[in-house]
Amino acid sequence: MLIFIFLIIVSAAFYLYYKTKQIRTRLPVRKNWYASRAQIALGSFIAFFGVNQLFIFQTAVTYIIAGIFIVLGLVLIVHNYKANRHYQAFLDEETRLNP
What we know:
Radius of gyration: 16 Å
Oligomer: single chain
Shape: elongated
Order of helices and strands: HHHH
């Protein structure tokens, strides 16, 4: 159970890190790339939070809500992983065009 607490904290830290990087950059592709990475971290935060709740509370309502959190987190992770790969293909070109 402590491992999930650690993973929740790490996910939140990565979310804040990438969100700060997104705000600070001026290049549009890099901004979208950081946004997709931040959303991956947010998705993992939501999914780990849902899994952690399964160990804390053992009721039917908790199973339903935790299931929703886990599915929502996985959807965010998968969707933004694809977006991350898409934007990563254009990072070198954007860096080359905007020194």
